[in-house]
Amino acid sequence: MNDEFKGKSGKVKVMYVRGEDDKSARAPNPRTGKGGRPAARQDDNRRSSGPRTERNEEGGRPAGRRSDDGARSGSARRDEGGRGAPRRSGEGAGRRNERADDNRGAYSNSDSPWRTVSRAPSERPAATESDKPDHGGISGKSFVDPEQIRRQRNEETRVYGENACQALFQSRPEAIVRAWFIQEVTPRFREALRWLAANRKAYHVVEDAEITKASGTEHHGGVCFLIKKRMGMAVSEWLGQAGTKDCVLALEDVSNPHNLGAIMRSCAHFGVKGLLVNDASLLESGAAVRTAEGGAEHVQAISGATFSEGLEAFRKAGYTIVTTSSHQGTPLAKAELPAKMVLVLGQEREGLSDSAFQQGDMSVSIGGTGNVESLNVSVATGVLLAEWWRQNA
User: Fold this and answer.
1) What are the φ and ψ backbone dihedral angles of 377, each rounded to 5 degrees?
2) Which residue among 9, 58, 253, 307 sits deepest, i.e. has the most Cβ atoms within 10 Å of its Cβ?
3) pTM listed for this prediction
4) What pLDDT, in 10s, does the model give residues 39-75?
5) Are 318 and 339 in contact (CB under 8 A)?
6) What region, left, alpha or beta, does residue 61 occupy, with left being phi > 0 and alpha being psi -120 to 50 degrees?
7) For the chain, how far is it from start to end, CA to CA, in angstroms?
8) What angle (nearest 5°) sits at the alpha carbon of residue 139, between those of residues 136 and 143?
9) Are strands 223-228 and 12-17 parallel, antiparallel or unpaired?
């Protein structure tokens, strides 16, 4: 039902299907007293005619035409001088109004299955649950729950950058939902394009402006993937598969995506595969994955009930908790880093919290000139992991 069409009066015209009761009980025209079937259908022996071609009772020619004896039916109105007497204006207007009423009565009481009701826009009935669009799945227009869309978007993320997307495709192609490419990079993603086509994954070869919009950044590197996020692995599950030599990196409240990307790149380079974080989804952000340059595919996020509880679970499993500080602790050059340890780092500004620092079994520091207070957290991670690799590789 479409009620958007308006008449000259500004009211909305709504068309309803006429019911059986409406067809059987047709009220007479209040202005002419005529009712039942339209005037054009009253006599089955008569054919319908317009208001100007009323036929005589015998069904012959219209009254205004010559009869068989050659006299005009209108001759009775001629005066003595042979000229026709002028028709009174009131009489003509009355006949015209009568014919108009007949026409309106015939239309309103016709056999049309539609009846028209006019009402002001403010009189529209309030929408109900049954008024929601339901297209039955035709042309992809079936009703989709907004909550389902929000949940789906929370489970997906966009990654971009040529090296990052190549590594992701080699590691977990099944996570790809949709892909965008610019023409220049397609030769280097030939294998990915074949796989996407064979597995009916949507992909688009687009201009730079469109892929910028899809990825949300100008630093997309010519390719963008929409992927399903990876969930963090539970500490107990990680401990069940850990070997005798294992270094896990624990980051307390480190959330900058570029720092996280650089840290994941260093972890991949020095063989650190586990990363204990507060929020596993931070490692899946587009900026972090692009900065990691493929390193994100070699690192697994680990989640505990809380950060402190995660550290305690590792200690009980035989790991040494190593904290870091820029002001105190054993100089890194003199420290013996165990083969099985959890290296804990915090924010550059605040450092580790007191509770996390107190959980440490040993503390190390990176010596330097002292011209700056501390190193960037991603740089410090690279230095510390390089030393652990040197001692335990």
Assistant:
1) -60, -35
2) 307
3) 0.62
4) 444 444 444 444 444 444 444 454 444 444 444 444 4
5) no
6) beta
7) 75
8) 45
9) unpaired
Out of 96-100, 181-185, 307-311, least confident range? 96-100
Which tokens go with 94? 């009355």
- What is d(CA 134, CA 141) in angstroms, rounded to the nearest whole number? 8
Can you name the residues that pair with 363 across neighbouring β-strands? 323
Query: CB atoms < 10 A from the CB of 284, how many?
Result: 23
Q: How far apart are CA 294 and CA 242, in angstroms?
A: 23
The radius of gyration of the chain from alpha carbons, rounded to an integer in Å, stands at 43
- Binning pLDDT at 50, 70 and 90, where does residue 35 land? low
Question: How many angstroms separate the CA atoms of 258 and 336, rounded?
Answer: 30
Q: How far apart are CA 168 and CA 295, in angstroms?
A: 10
Beta-carbon-side half-sphere exposure of residue 339 (alpha carbons within 13 Å): 6
Q: Write the CB contacts of 342 (distance below 8 Å, at least 6 apart in sequence).
A: 247, 248, 249, 250, 276, 311, 314, 315, 319, 320, 321, 322
Backbone angles phi, psi at 70, to 5 degrees: 85, -5
Q: Kindly report the CA angle at 338 between 333 and 339, in degrees rounded to 5? A: 120
**Sheet holding 156-160: strands in order across?**
156-160, 223-228, 176-182, 202-206
At residue 224, the 3 state secondary structure works out as: strand
What is d(CA 37, CA 26) in angstroms, rounded to the nearest whole number? 8
| Closest to 277 in 3D by CA, of 345, 365, 361, 340 | 345
Q: Are 115 and 25 in contact (CB under 8 A)?
A: no
Identify the three-state secondary structure at position 52. Answer: coil
Q: What is the pLDDT of residues 287-345, one digit of tens each?
A: 999 999 999 999 999 998 899 999 999 999 999 999 988 778 899 999 999 999 999 99
Residue 257 vs residues 27, 100, 155, 281, 282: alpha-carbon distances, Å: 76, 78, 18, 11, 7
Alpha-carbon dihedral 380, 384, 386, 387, rounded to 10 degrees: 150
Residue type, 368: G
Give the largest Cα separation in the chain, rounded. Answer: 141
Which tokens hold the place of 271?
């063989």
One-letter amino acid at 266 equals: S
Which residues 6+ apart lie within 8 Å of 308 measured at CB?
Answer: 355, 356, 359
Question: What does the block give as tokens for 219?
Answer: 């630093």
Helix (H, G, I), strand (E, B) or coil at 104: helix
